[in-house]
Amino acid sequence: MEAEMGLLPEGCIANVISLTTPRDACRLSSVSTVFKSAAESDAVWERFLPPDYPTLLSDAASSSSSSSSLHFSSKKELYFSLCHNPILIDEGKKSFSLDKRSGKKCYMISARDLLIVWGDTPTYWRWTSVPEARFPEVAELICVCWLEIRCKINTRSLSPRTLYAAYLVYKPTAGSYGFEYQPVDASVGVVGSESQTRTVYLDAERGQRQRYHYPRRIGLFNRSRRQASMPKENDGCYPKERDDEWLEIELGDFLNKEDEDGELEMSVLEVAAGDWKGGLIIQGIEIRPKQGK
Questions:
Q1: pLDDT at residue number 7
Q2: Is the dihedral of CA 25, 27, 31, 32 positive or negative?
Q3: What does pTM read for this prediction?
Q4: Which residues on adjacent β-strands are paired with residue 155?
């Protein structure tokens, strides 16, 4: 079989492999020596990269003080670098990466590019830097009774025919308070269309307690709207720890169709209860293909 495949031009084999997936290409490269050269060729991995990747790399070079890390020996090396090492674009206000399995586009919108109500008022928020963040600045919530965070991204920037999910990426500080029993409203949707809204909790310890313990009995006179709205166990309403040790909470999902053209808006709100809350560090909102979809 290998001898027969060797009769085919490498370009023909590469063209067939480029119609599969990055994962398939890696597997095929280990099948035989005939496939290895074709599967690792630039012709294959060029097809796995988004069509506008040269523009994104140019943007990244202009957004960075050093462009030395943007030189690669092959398109395959470039592909996996974009999977594991997000690049800063849009003057450092966004990061861009690729989903390793599919090659679909992923973005994180930095805290500086979010619309944070009272974000420039030092009494309520302060701007700082932390070494583990991918952006130069993050937003630290001091205390507010009106929490409102919004952002938008053009759907043309996303990969077509892809189910995306949006995630708030954050960390609690040592003195975090006000989120133990107070849910927030998260929404995702195209401006001008009906948005998907869900209730989530930002308190990670509460999520752990909910997974491993039965809820406490609550007296008749101690019940409240917030207690009654407690989500069911393991329904995705609690934050999860990421590989980079930040927390993330899913805000909702969105199917980006082939001809979708509009502004995708994401929001995190807690404006109804009026309770004071504080002690969160916001890195940004990430939009990436939903796992398993």
A1: 62
A2: positive
A3: 0.86
A4: none
Cα separation, 153 vs 255, in Å, equals 14
CA distance 5 to 8: 6
Q: Which two tokens stand for residue 218?
A: 């609550």
Residue environment code for 132-147, b if the CB has 16+ CB neighbours within 10 A, otherwise e: ebbbebbbbbbebeeb
Q: Could you give the 3-state DSSP secondary structure of residue 205?
A: helix
**pLDDT value, residue 219:** 43
103 Cβ contact partners less than 8 Å away, ≥ 6 residues apart: 21, 22, 48, 49, 50, 79
Under 8 Å between Cβ of 252 and 266: yes
CB 253 within 8 A of CB 162: no
C-beta neighbour count of 266 within 10 angstroms: 25
pLDDT at 226: 45
Contact 290, 165 (CB under 8 A): yes
- The two three-digit tokens of residue 50, written as one number: 């988004």
Question: 3-state SS string over 211-226?
Answer: HHCCCCCCCHHHCCHH
C-beta separation of 253 from 290 below 8 A: yes
Which of 49, 51, 71 minimizes the C-alpha distance to 60?
Answer: 71
Contact 273, 215 (CB under 8 A): no
What is the chain's Cα-based Rg?
Answer: 22
The H or E element containing residue 287 is strand 278-289
Collect the ranges in the chain with pLDDT lower than 50: 1-2, 66-67, 212-229, 231, 233-234
The strand pair at 147-154 and 263-270 is best described as: antiparallel
Strands (E) in 179-243, as ranges, are 184-190, 196-200, 240-241
